[in-house]
Automatic annotation (TrEMBL):
Name listed for the protein in its UniProt record: Histidine biosynthesis bifunctional protein HisB
Active site: residue positions: 10, 12
Co-factor(s): Mg(2+)
Stretches for region Imidazoleglycerol-phosphate dehydratase: 171-381
Encoding gene, per UniProt annotation: hisB
């Protein structure tokens, strides 16, 4: 039997902005929270149904007449319906906090009847609110909680990111790697494209890591505090190890991924260095001015790195060129990645940057979702 996930949604501060007096009792107070309608449309199209659950302190008393509530509420519902957003149920508790009513969030008395329905997918259901009481409601109901980011109550989420988390089921990972030599924190989201944010203390390494995120097509944040007063080695190595670990964790069991990163182009000659063998198919070939880099990779679970190239300069910017292949070797160790990388050219800046961009493009292809099957006859990667 197919089941449907439910998105439980608070009202004031979540669907519509909450005024200072906490009562939306006039039409001019009605303001929608930014991004709520597009996000809910994404969720609707992905199969979610919506249940509003709201505490309205003293609704129906002289302090908060029912008529004052009904007009703005009806207009809000009309706007949602005009956009194709319909609430399966609207559950309103009118008690005061001191009443300790079983129907008042974080208690789940208003939703108990839903627990008896067999057609609800509770594993994917969630609660969106702006207060800790909404988080408590989610815990009591046994569903995932999303607390909207507000100046008054904190929170980490906005509506677009909630829709992304629920609809895309993103492959994300956060890795904290602390040693006596470095402190590295990496956050990746393989299913979101965002501007990379990098800080390692090495300007050129930052620039290269930005290429991995930008051309790899995934969100990447990486911060490293390393012992640069000694040299650059530990910062480069540990950044690569932590990034590789984050990629491995984000991929999980690797079901549905492309696994391999390559293209079908063939390059039959190496104009820049005739002593190098020709570059053939099963590699991602990327030019940068006179430089040419080719990367072929496999998320096999078996780390292996092969590098073919030569640099003439000791450093490009503040990055020693000898650490470029070491970065990719460490990345392979952290990610369980097999990478063959070849580069040629006259300008070392171009060669190094072409390497990072070629690997990024191969990563984009390898981590792309193509279904749910495991791309291995072994049954494990």
């Amino acid at each position: 039997m197919s089941t449907t996930p439910i998105l439980f949604v608070d009202r004031d501060g979540t669907l519509i902005e909450e005024p200072e007096d906490f009562q939306i009792d006039r039409y001019e107070k009605l303001r929608f929270v930014p991004g709520v309608i597009p996000a809910m449309l994404r969720l609707r199209d992905a199969g979610w149904q919506f249940v509003m659950v709201t505490n309205q302190d003293g609704l129906g008393t002289p302090a908060y007449p029912q008529a004052d509530f009904d007009g703005p509420h009806a207009l809000m519902m009309q706007v949602f319906e005009s956009q194709g957003i319909v609430f399966r149920e609207v559950l309103i508790d009118t008690s005061f906090p001191a009443d300790n009513a079983p129907t008042r969030k974080p208690a789940i008395g208003l939703a108990l009847h839903l627990l008896r329905e067999r057609g609800i997918d509770w594993t994917r259901s969630a609660m969106v609110g702006d207060r800790e009481t909404d988080n408590g409601f989610a815990r009591n109901l046994g569903v995932r909680a999303f607390q909207l980011r507000t100046a008054q109550f904190g929170g980490e989420w906005d509506w677009p990111s909630i829709a992304h988390a629920l609809v895309d089921a993103p492959r994300v990972a956060t890795v904290q790697r602390d040693t006596r030599e470095t402190r590295v924190r990496v956050v990746v989201d393989l299913d979101e494209r965002a501007e990379p944010w990098i800080s390692t203390g090495l300007g050129f390494l930052d620039h290269m890591l930005e290429q991995l995120g930008k051309h790899g097509g995934f969100a990447l944040q990486l911060e490293c505090e390393g012992d640069l007063q000694i040299d650059e080695h530990h910062t480069v190595e540990d950044s690569a190890l932590a990034l590789g670990q984050a990629l491995r964790e984000a991929l999980g069991d690797k079901r549905g991924i492309g696994r391999y990163g390559f293209d079908d182009a063939q390059v039959l000659t190496q104009e820049a260095d005739a002593t190098l063998p020709p570059v053939v198919a099963a590699s991602f070939t990327l030019p940068m001015d006179e430089a040419l880099a080719c990367a072929a990779l496999d998320f096999s679970g078996r780390p292996y790195f092969v590098f073919d190239g030569r640099f003439r300069r000791e450093c490009v910017g503040d990055l020693p060129t000898e650490l470029v292949p070491h970065f990719f070797r460490s990345l392979c160790e952290g990610a369980g990645l097999n990478l063959n990388l070849r580069v040629s050219g006259d300008n070392d800046h171009h060669q190094v940057e072409a390497c990072f961009k070629a690997v990024a493009r191969a990563l984009r292809q390898a981590v792309r979702r193509e279904g749910r099957e495991l791309p291995s006859t072994k049954g494990v990667l």
